[in-house]
Design a protein that fits this description.
five-stranded mixed beta sheet; 5 helices; alpha+beta; DNA-binding; six-stranded mixed beta sheet; globular; about 250 residues; about 30% strand; Deoxyribonuclease I, Chain A
DNA sequence: ATGGTTGCTTAGCAA
């Protein structure tokens, strides 16, 4: 089994202990992290060098930023991080790793929330779609993992959280999301659990919404076929950590 | 219609 994880940690320095204990417990082969909110020189040595992992950090001081951790059992040397031209505010990092018999590019993505600049969100999603379209045309398998900041369907937002036309649920952003999925990509968790109306990855941090599972599904693992067909199971760590997002771990056969 | 909480960039943002 190969485990691929994604987690918006909402400040990696504040989550250091829980991140390391989660890593030790889950031992994902690849972990994509978002909202690290730190530049590399701000990271403590415990995060610069994590036992058993290559670490790829792409962050700035205090805001946004992503990371990719790759198990040393998957790669003999540190896989280089790549940043597509449409990147801004350190929102995407891509590594290539051999998974089974294929070289797969794994992207850790933090899509802009859109509250500050909604058009920038649409542009970023559109560019991500074009990037995935190119990969599909070239037959290059992809895993797009991260906080995409869009809830695909009505059912991906708890009824108590629904409001008309709110960001994350608008028709135009959902349209780009569906176009992205049309690039030979599968929303793995929804595919594995099609009837679950309580499948959320983010909960507003007040009134015990997380304990009550009143949330949104905005964190995803999108996998190219035929990789997606190997997805066997997944878990959302609703009780893991103190970020407003839970970690998502997908197991591939 | 608004609020509530958290982490960061120390004081208000952004989420």
């Amino acid at each position: 089994m190969i485990r691929i994880a994604t987690w918006n940690v909402n400040g990696i320095r504040a989550r250091q202990a829980e991140l390391l204990s989660w890593l030790a417990a889950e031992r994902p082969d690849v972990a994509c992290l978002q909202e690290i909110k730190a530049s590399i020189d701000q990271l403590p040595f415990e995060l610069r060098d994590i036992e058993g992992y290559w670490t790829g950090w792409h962050g700035e001081k205090g805001y946004s930023g992503v990371g990719v951790l790759v198990s040393k059992s998957l790669a003999p040397t540190a896989p280089p991080l790549d940043h597509p031209a449409f990147d801004f505010e350190q929102r995407i990092a891509v590594i290539a790793v051999a998974l089974g018999d294929r070289v797969v590019r794994v992207a850790s993505v933090y899509v802009p929330n859109g509250g500050r600049d909604y058009q920038a969100k649409l542009r970023f999603l559109g560019a991500l779609d074009t990037w995935a379209e190119d990969a599909a045309r070239d037959g290059q398998p992809l895993l797009i993992c991260g906080d995409l900041n869009v809830a695909r369907h009505e059912r991906d937002v708890h009824p108590k959280e629904r409001k008309p036309n709110q960001i994350g649920t608008r028709p135009d952003e959902r349209e780009v999301f569906e176009r992205l999925l049309s690039r030979n990509l599968v929303d793995v968790c929804r595919e594995l659990d099609p009837d679950n109306d309580g499948l959320f990855t983010w909960w507003a941090p007040w009134r015990n919404l997380r304990q009550r599972n009143i949330g949104w599904r905005i964190d995803y693992v999108l996998a190219s076929q035929p990789l997606a067909a190997r997805a066997a199971s997944f878990r959302v760590g609703r009780d893991v950590g103190t970020s407003d997002h839970g970690p998502v771990v997908v197991e591939f056969a």
